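Newbie here. three chains, one complex. Structure please?
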Amino acid sequence: MNLQAGKFKAGDRVTVKFEDRPGHIRTPWYIRGKTGWIERVYGDFLNPESLAFGRDGLPKRTLYLVAFNQSDVWPKAVGSKDKILVDIYEHWLIPAA
Amino acid sequence: MPRGHHDIGGLPGAGKIDQTEHELSDWEILADAVNQALGARGIKRTDEMRRAREEMDSATYRDMTYYERWIASIEAILIEKNILTKEEIDRKLAEFESKWGEP
Amino acid sequence: MSDGHDTRETPQDHGHEHPKHELSYYAKRIYAIRDLLLEKGVITDKDIQSQVEYQEARSPANGAKLVARAWIDPAFKARFIGDPKAACAEMGIDAASINEFVVLENTEKVRHMVVCTLCSCYPRPILGRPPDWYKSFNYRQRAVNDPRGVMREFGLVLPDDVAVRIHDSTADIRYLVLPLRPKGTEGLSETQLAKLVTRDSMIGVMDALPALPPS
């Protein structure tokens, strides 16, 4: 497993960007704009947004396992202690305010 | 840019999950194998196929079965890459249909 | 195939056969696409056949073997969680085509569940093809905001003090749940244990089956 460090490390609080640009996006709509924390750094991968259009996927992007409280993602999940974890590329994340 | 028709996590209105399973038909096994074979030969990437499905007409996307969507995206990508044309697929299909008979 | 109307027969008569003229529009088209690709030398008969065979060699039984070994052998379990592809290779299971493989260990207090809301990503090289329900719109929609409701449909009711971690598999990582070893299985052999490990328990919508009744 490629353990090259990206911008974020485990434990960092991050917010998922809310963009609605066209193209092949692997950041689900429901998680955009939500704040969670880095659970794991997966390493660098070819960018699917580029690969989807026959391009070479470079430069590689760091992929993270980002965890969120269900109660922060869904209005009806008030009081839940469950978590939701999503694999998100670095260019979709900003440090949480 | 509206939310993609494939981007459905958390959308309301979903019902009970149908747990019945169906044995794959010959054509589904073939679709699966052709898809994998094209990937193994480096002709297309999975990301291109996903993108083709996302670009489909939304009503059609919801109505098609899983492997029908795969076949539609295989066709779209092969045409996009100028490997096949729609016309030659139509012609070949017409040849088959004349042998297979009328429904 | 018995009707013999195809110009080229591929020996993959493994599925449920429909008379060709009854197939839907796209179902028919894949035969035309296949023939054209073969004629143009884009892929070969052997390419197709080897993919059919690759797929047939993959089933939940592979995953069950890995889980049963992990239950019995703590050192293997550590290897399975630490480097799943290497652990698969030890057991003769070919996981080479998975880019990144992650094993999620269930405990008394934590249950994992896996979905691909955007399409149908699944650890196919280990478990084979995903079940229809995993690919369904209802599962893809509800798994993320109602995982406990989904688990209840599969017969798993969790108390409040057990936390659920729902993974949306959106990129190259492929996830396999390592279910909790059922209580009262201390005397069972690895083969017997493997029978308790269902495909659905490795997706995380249910626990492994309870211990077999004494025979």
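Moderator note: Chain B has five helices and no strands. Chain B touches chain A through 14 residues (CB under 8 Å). Thread marked as resolved.
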